[in-house]
Write a structure and sequence with these properties.
With 311 residues, this protein is mainly α. Among the domains are: 108 residues, Cytochrome Bc1 Complex, Chain D, domain 2 (Orthogonal Bundle); 101 residues, Cytochrome Bc1 Complex, Chain D, domain 2, CATH 1.10.760.10. Strand 1 and strand 2 form a beta hairpin. The two termini are 55 Å apart.
Length: 311
């Protein structure tokens, strides 16, 4: 922190504290001796209702002074005044590192034992899953939900539809290094009518995939005129990521467009918004937050979610 901001924080903090204590002392009145004339604040209501100028109760005033003294002691012991670290030298980084080291000493052997076993095996081990669930709730539930069911823009981890692949190795890689998915905005290239045609084709895909032999592309003969036009535009703008059969590409994180798993909503308005404006999704890397042993157990829990809810 620069010298200016260091001095600014010192002045602001001590000035505010000193001002509060001065105001407390200046506004403290002494209790008057009983007599025929009462001391009032000069305020009156309804002609004869007046406010007495009575001091604060002593116990209440004492609490204010104790609070002020506590603040001074705190600023001496702990950081709070610019670059001054406090006489104890405490900071949140050292506290975090100490707690992390203590946790590693306590649980390190447990995670080391799990790390010696394959992820797929741990995905059926109740002990490993209990530990993995705790890791999931602390690190993943904020986006994917406590049950792994996801939300709009956050993948459902229980349905077996994997954007980047569902092998144990891929899940470990995803958790460790994160992912960045980008759907480019195509509104300017397609135009309003073109977007409508692509939506019509996307809506026809489940029907076409059901009618087409496995491993073959759908034929244009089964398409309506808008669907045919949408197919042509799809082949021009979309197949590079989603593939000729629209089954997606896990190497790119491009989703399968023939199933019912729509990350950003499945209404026509939702699809239009994605095509028009594009999307940018980010899965944060956890290599700085979790050790490889913990990622190993977490991956097993994620794999178990798909095994329970997906196919």
């Amino acid at each position: 922190m620069s010298g200016f901001w260091n001095a600014y924080i010192w002045l602001l903090t001590l000035g505010t504290l000193g001002g509060c204590l001065w105001l407390l002392q200046a506004m403290t009145t002494k209790r008057k001796q009983p007599g025929p004339v009462e001391d009032t604040t000069g305020h009156s209501w309804d002609g004869d209702l007046e406010e007495f100028n009575n001091p604060l109760p002593r116990w209440w005033l004492t609490l204010f002074w104790i609070t002020g003294i506590f603040m001074i002691v705190y600023l001496v012991i702990y950081p709070g005044l610019g670059n001054f670290a406090g006489v104890m030298g405490w900071n949140q980084v050292s506290q975090y590192e100490a707690e992390r080291a203590a946790a590693e000493e306590r649980y390190g052997d447990v995670f080391a034992a799990f790390a010696a076993r394959p992820v797929a095996e741990l995905a059926t081990d109740p002990d490993a899953l209990r530990v993995g669930r705790n890791l999931f709730l602390n690190n993943c539930a904020g986006c994917h939900g406590s049950d792994g069911g996801g939300a709009r823009g956050y993948p459902n981890l229980t349905d077996g539809a994997w954007l980047y692949g569902g092998s144990p190795e891929t899940i470990v890689q995803t958790i460790t290094y994160g992912r960045n998915g980008v759907m480019p905005a195509l509104g300017a290239a397609l135009g309003e009518g073109g977007i409508d045609e692509v939506i019509a084709y996307l809506r026809a895909l489940p029907r076409l995939q059901a009618a087409a032999p496995a491993g073959t592309a759908s034929t244009a003969q089964t398409l309506t005129a808008p669907e045919t036009a949408g197919q042509q535009k799809f082949q021009t703008f979309c197949i590079a990521c989603h593939g000729m059969d629209a089954h997606g590409n896990q190497a790119l994180g491009a989703p399968n467009l023939t199933d019912n798993d729509w990350l950003h909503g499945r209404t026509d308005a939702d699809i239009r918004s994605v095509i028009l404006d594009g999307r940018a999704n980010h899965m944060p890397a956890h290599e700085e937050l979790l050790t490889p042993d913990r990622i190993h157990v977490l991956a097993a829990y994620v794999l178990s979610l798909a095994a329970e809810g997906g196919s």
